[in-house]
TrEMBL record:
<dbReference type="GO" id="GO:0043269">
    <property type="term" value="P:regulation of monoatomic ion transport"/>
</dbReference>
<keyword id="KW-0630">Potassium</keyword>
<comment type="function">
    <text>Associates with and regulates the activity of the sodium/potassium-transporting ATPase (NKA) which catalyzes the hydrolysis of ATP coupled with the exchange of Na(+) and K(+) ions across the plasma membrane. Reduces the apparent affinity for external K(+), an effect that depends on the presence of external Na(+) and voltage. Increases the apparent affinity for intracellular Na(+).</text>
</comment>
<keyword id="KW-0325">Glycoprotein</keyword>
<dbReference type="InterPro" id="IPR047297">
    <property type="entry name" value="FXYD_motif"/>
</dbReference>
<keyword id="KW-1133">Transmembrane helix</keyword>
<dbReference type="GO" id="GO:0006814">
    <property type="term" value="P:sodium ion transport"/>
</dbReference>
<dbReference type="GO" id="GO:0005886">
    <property type="term" value="C:plasma membrane"/>
</dbReference>
<keyword id="KW-0813">Transport</keyword>
<keyword id="KW-0739">Sodium transport</keyword>
<keyword id="KW-0915">Sodium</keyword>
<feature type="region of interest" description="Disordered">
    <location>
        <begin position="55"/>
        <end position="77"/>
    </location>
</feature>
<comment type="subunit">
    <text>Regulatory subunit of the sodium/potassium-transporting ATPase which is composed of a catalytic alpha subunit, a non-catalytic beta subunit and an additional regulatory subunit. The regulatory subunit, a member of the FXYD protein family, modulates the enzymatic activity in a tissue- and isoform-specific way by changing affinities of the Na+/K+-ATPase toward Na(+), K(+) or ATP.</text>
</comment>
<dbReference type="InterPro" id="IPR000272">
    <property type="entry name" value="Ion-transport_regulator_FXYD"/>
</dbReference>
<keyword id="KW-0740">Sodium/potassium transport</keyword>
<feature type="transmembrane region" description="Helical">
    <location>
        <begin position="22"/>
        <end position="45"/>
    </location>
</feature>
<dbReference type="Pfam" id="PF02038">
    <property type="entry name" value="ATP1G1_PLM_MAT8"/>
</dbReference>
Amino acid sequence: MATPTQSPTNVPEETDPFYYDYATVQTVGMTLATIMFVLGIIIILSKKVKCRKADSSPTCKSCKSELPSSAPGGGGV
């Protein structure tokens, strides 16, 4: 293991260019995460609600066409 040969010198202190106000960063991060989480839940629920309405609606037909069991000729589980 190597040992230092010189004593540490006093380096003039410079301002750190990467100083962060961690409380603000945490607050903004949690706010954005909450907004994205709520928007994701709303999007997921809105797609499920559209398919559960009347069976004759065009959106329900498009949702059912994605399911393999509703393909012409059967093929259900």
